[in-house]
Each structure stands twice: as C-alpha cells, then as structure tokens.
C-alpha cells in the first residue's frame, strides 16, 4: 500500500518529510559501483567496456562489434511495422517544431560609450546521447535527445543504448535514422557514460552527455560532469497528479501507473482534496495492477514509493507540489491554468484531465527528458539550449577605451594585478599621444 497522508493530521509534516527524503537512488552503494566502473573504463578502454557489457547486459562483444554498422541500422530499421514508422515520424516532426522555437537569437549593439557588445550562440561539436534500455526500450528517447541536438546544429551525434542479451529494438534504430544520428553503440549503464566522457579506442569522446537513465547512469553522469557537460539528472520517472473529485479514478490510476511501470524506483503521487476520492483512486490502481503486464515493476514502485496526500484545498496542494518539485505534474482540475500559475517547481506541467502525461512522453512536442529527484527546483527539461554555448563579444573603439579604460586601471590596481592595468594604460597612452594605432 502507498502512504496515505492528510495535511490536517498532527503527524503530517513528519510523514511528508519522510516522503521527500525517501532514498530512491543516489545510494552510496550505487556511487561506489559507478566509481569503479568509470575507473575501469579509463584504465582499459574497449576491453573494460566489453567485459562490463558481458557482466551487466549478458552480451559478449569484441571491440569491433561495439558500434552498429550502417548496414545493421538499416536492416533493423526496415523491420519496423508501418504504423510504428508513421507514429515515430509524426513524433519527430512535432518534437522538431516545438524545439525550433527554442533557438535563441545572437545579439550585438553599441552602447553609449561606443563599445560594441553582444553574444553569439554556437553548438557543441559532439554530443553523446544516452538512450535507456534495461527494463524497457525507448525509441522515443532517441528522438527527445537527437532532435534538439540537430536543431542546435551539433555536428556529431553518438548514441549509447544497452541491448541486454543482444536484443535490439528495431524502432530505436529507425528513430536514430529519422533523427540523423551518426553513431550508435550497444553499450549501456555507467560504462557507456564513462566511454562517452573519456573515450576508448572505438568510442571517441564527446563534449556533452544528455539523456535519462537508471540510478547507475545518473550517478555516472554526476561523476563525469566537469570532464564533459551534462544536461541534468534525469533518473527514475516521477508523476504528481493534483486532482479534484470530479475526475474518473480509473483515468488517474492509469496516469499514476504510467510512470510507476518504468522502474521499481519510480514514484507516483496523488494530491486530492477529498479522502474518500483518494481511496477510490487507490482501489482503481489496485484493480489495474492485477492485469498490467508490468505489474511486478509498477506494483513495487507503487507499494514502496507511491503516496496519496489529502490537502485542505487546491492552493495547499500547489504549495505541497512546489516542495516536491516533481518531474511531471498533472493538473486534473476545473481551472488548470489558474493552478499552474501557483506551481513553480516542476519539470513539465500537463493541463487538464484530457492531457495524460503519456502524451508528453511521445508526441506532445515538449521534451520528455526531465529533471527528477526534486532537481526541478533548479533545473529544466532537455532543450536546444543544452546543446549550445554562449560566447560573449566585446569590441572597443579608441573612444570607448578612453571612456571606460581608466576604471579598469583603477580596479586592476585594487586587485594588485599590474599587467592587467598596464595592458589598458599602454593603449590609453598611445591614445593621448597622437596618431591612433
Ligand atoms: N527522467 C527522464 O527524463 C526519463 C526518461 C525516460 C526514462 N527514464 C528512466 O530511465 C530509467 C531507465 O532504466 P533502465 O534500467 O530501463 O535502463 P538503463 O539503460 O538506464 O540502465 C540499464 C543499464 O544499467 C546498468 N546496470 C543495471 N544493473 C546494474 C548493477 N547492478 N550494477 C551496475 N550497473 C548496472 C547496466 O549497465 C545496464 O546496461 C528508468 O528509471 C526510467 O524511469 C527517465
Ligand atoms: N516518462 C519518461 C520520462 O520520465 C519518458 C518515457 C519514454 N517512454 C515512455 N515514457
Ligand atoms: Zn513514461
């Protein structure tokens, strides 16, 4: 049974604090294992990647087999049934149309002192895109990673995707083809992240690693940050549904289970304003769990991390949601826009009972790679910006240097950085002595 909390109970704060601090990932055990894996890959390159793939994915490979050949990709992609191909193309088109709008503008202006100032956006040269493949397979995550990278103009896109027991999902290959990915490696987990960050004999290093994954992938991304850029921590999935009692409990049960079925470490929470309605949703979840194909995973997630919270009203529900900072927030209420304005810490918001979160996972347009484990307090879902860097630009005319240089000289002196000041002084002296250089 999930925890059932009521904000009017005396022990509520205690129970809510326990819910917020429940350890779903990031355990010292996982981090120790990941540190060892990264060290092995750094020391032994391809040989370590092959050994680890055999150990964790039960797949024996030689270094030359790590990368899918173009022929294998084409052969796999050709197996995808038409309906799936059409759906993937529609998804890609909608994701592209959404992300094109995120492309930021360069800027350039001349200020009153005559200084030319601005900035320019340029893409990273190579991106490593992690596509999970342990408990489920994610063609949709290929599109969510690769389409924004392409829109940003990244030159080289390399995917790492585990293929446990050597089983390949043809739709993953088709999605890679549709998105224009350059390289696909059958490597997963922390070893994939280490290979992308540090490089091996067969996997060239990248500049930025993006994409979701389980606790091992998330821990590895944390550890390689600095050597490469990362997007965020996108770990086990989460959903928070705020619902009034006008909803169909079965719809909400399915929405909660849609994220619980990703992983035993996933988390699904309902906040409602009526205890009796909350109990009806719990009953609906139990009924659906009996027939769901992935009931073992979804049931464990619901039992260990699921929660129902009864709030006094929707305003209180929004305040609790802000403290949770969920990856996905569904607002199944009469006026979702009004409530959304109060919900300021969430990766993605789904407005109204007709917007199941699953639409966002596949075809809505916004990205489904989103911050988890309360990191929506300070980070955002994957976007075109994750694949871009901003370089600032400045150009002084002699007049502009004359106007602002003296202040730089003063500040350099106050920091005792003599050469800094002299680099300005030398130019100002030339300026004061006649012909400009
Ligand atoms: N937040 C998001 O945006 C988002 C999007 C999609 C999926 N997800 C989440 O991504 C996760 C995908 O997880 P998954 O397991 O299906 O695939 P995965 O590819 O992330 O993990 C599989 C890999 O984990 C490694 N691994 C497994 N057990 C290990 C162990 N004991 N020691 C060392 N390494 C081990 C293996 O190398 C394996 O290849 C789920 O939690 C899902 O909820 C999140
Ligand atoms: N809900 C996941 C993000 O947490 C994304 C996904 C892909 N496929 C299905 N769901
Ligand atoms: Zn999902």
From TrEMBL:
One Pfam family hit: Histidinol_dh
Name the record gives this protein: Histidinol dehydrogenase
Binding site residues for Zn(2+): 259, 262, 361, 420
Its biological purpose: Catalyzes the sequential NAD-dependent oxidations of L-histidinol to L-histidinaldehyde and then to L-histidine.
Catalytic activity of the protein: L-histidinol + 2 NAD(+) + H2O = L-histidine + 2 NADH + 3 H(+)
Family (UniProt): Belongs to the histidinol dehydrogenase family.
Binding sites annotated in the UniProt record for substrate: 237, 259, 262, 328, 361, 415, 420
Cofactor field: Zn(2+)
Zinc among keywords: yes
Active site: 327-328
Organism superkingdom: Bacteria
Assigned EC number: 1.1.1.23
Gene name in the database record: hisD
PANTHER family: HISTIDINE BIOSYNTHESIS TRIFUNCTIONAL PROTEIN (PTHR21256:SF2), HISTIDINOL DEHYDROGENASE HDH (PTHR21256)
InterPro entries per UniProt: Ald_DH/histidinol_DH, Histidinol_DH_CS, Histidinol_DH_monofunct, Hstdl_DH
Pathway: Amino-acid biosynthesis; L-histidine biosynthesis; L-histidine from 5-phospho-alpha-D-ribose 1-diphosphate: step 9/9
Keywords for the protein's UniProt record, in alphabetical order: Amino-acid biosynthesis, Histidine biosynthesis, Metal-binding, NAD, Oxidoreductase, Zinc
């Amino acid at each position: 049974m999930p925890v059932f909390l009521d904000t009017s109970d005396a022990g509520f704060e205690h129970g809510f604090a326990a819910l917020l601090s429940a350890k779903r990932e990031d355990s010292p055990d996982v981090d120790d294992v990941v540190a060892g894996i990264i060290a092995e890959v750094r020391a032994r390159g391809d040989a370590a990647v092959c050994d680890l793939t055999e150990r964790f994915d039960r797949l024996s490979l030689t270094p030359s087999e790590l990368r899918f050949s173009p022929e294998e990709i084409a052969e796999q992609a050709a197996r995808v049934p038409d309906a799936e191909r059409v759906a993937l193309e529609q998804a890609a088109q909608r994701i592209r149309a959404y992300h094109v709008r995120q492309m930021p503008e360069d800027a350039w202006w001349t200020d009153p002192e005559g200084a030319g100032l601005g900035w320019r956006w340029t893409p990273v040269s190579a991106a490593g895109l992690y596509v999970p493949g342990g408990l489920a397979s994610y063609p949709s995550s290929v599109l969510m990673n690769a389409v924004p990278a392409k829109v940003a103009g990244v030159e080289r896109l390399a995917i790492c995707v585990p293929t446990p027991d050597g089983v390949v999902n043809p739709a993953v290959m088709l999605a890679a083809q549709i998105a224009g990915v350059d390289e696909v490696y059958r490597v997963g987990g922390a070893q994939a992240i280490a290979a992308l960050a540090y490089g091996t004999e067969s996997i060239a290093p990248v500049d930025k690693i993006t994409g979701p994954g389980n606790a091992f992938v998330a821990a590895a991304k944390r550890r390689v940050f600095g050597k490469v850029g990362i997007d965020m921590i996108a770990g086990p999935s989460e959903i928070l549904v705020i619902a009034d009692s006008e909803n169909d409990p079965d719809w909400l049960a399915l929405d909660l289970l849609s994220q619980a079925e990703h992983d035993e470490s996933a988390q699904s929470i309902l906040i409602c304003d009526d205890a009796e309605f909350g109990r009806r949703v719990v009953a609906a979840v139990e009924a659906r769990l009996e027939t769901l194909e992935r009931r073992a995973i979804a049931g464990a997630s619901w039992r260990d991390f699921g929660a129902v919270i009864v709030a006094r009203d929707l305003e209180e529900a929004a305040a609790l949601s802000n403290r949770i900072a969920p990856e996905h927030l569904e607002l199944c209420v009469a006026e979702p826009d009004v409530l959304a304005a109060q919900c300021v810490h969430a990766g993605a918001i789904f407005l109204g009972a007709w917007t199941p979160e699953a639409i966002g996972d596949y075809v809505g347009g916004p990205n489904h790679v989103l911050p988890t484990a309360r990191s929506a307090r300070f980070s955002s879902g994957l976007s075109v910006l994750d694949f871009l860097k901003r370089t600032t630009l400045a150009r002084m005319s002699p007049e502009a240097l004359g106007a602002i240089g003296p202040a730089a000289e003063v500040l350099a002196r106050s920091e005792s950085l003599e050469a800094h000041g002299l680099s300005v002084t030398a130019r100002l002296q030339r300026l004061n002595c006649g012909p400009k250089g």
